[in-house]
Fold this protein.
Amino acid sequence: MKHLIATLTLAAGLAGTAQADTKSQLCDILYAISEDIMFIRQNNAPMPEAMRIVAGEPVLEAVVRDAYSRPLFSTSKHQQRTIREFANDNYRRCIEQD
């Protein structure tokens, strides 16, 4: 959870700077946040806790809702695969947006 907060803080800071103006950089940030959100999902953190962390950020709220609509796995192998696939899916959608 602390890693997610750090990533969100970084994302908020970078999003307002010229350094993060490129789509690729913003999508990289979304990828990292997606990994963190699915990580906390796979560790059975309560959804209200995740929503409080991203409150006021509609895109990130949608990422949380999407993560919590996905299955929770008990084995590390399946958790890691799910985290990677979720982050990859969000990155792909981000890159493909006009």
